[in-house]
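Sharing a chain and its predicted structure for anyone who wants a worked example. Both blocks are below, sequence first, tokens second.
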Amino acid sequence: MRRIGFVLKVKRDKIAEYKQHHQKVWPEMLAALRRCGWHNYSLFMRPDGTLFGYFETPMSLQQAVADMAKEEINAQWQKFMTPYFEALEASQPDEGMQELEEVFHLD
């Protein structure tokens, strides 16, 4: 299982609303993530909107994102979430994830 860490940046004026949406992620989206091998998925946010995401998967980040791209609900979720992010280098948030290099793991 690979551990994937990534960063994105939520717009300051959208932080509260972004958090609200993640208290009730669409059940179809949660099912798609599980189907596509995203395990132990967590999001952490600094007060400035810097978002750190973490999940475990048997594949690379690129393959995990590609598998999710095949899910119709993912296209809807990404379109819905796009306005919440700043400085995206891609057309939607999941394509703009900047993977972090793992430099230490206790186990």
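Comments welcome. Helices lie at 15-23, 27-35, 61-69, 72-81.
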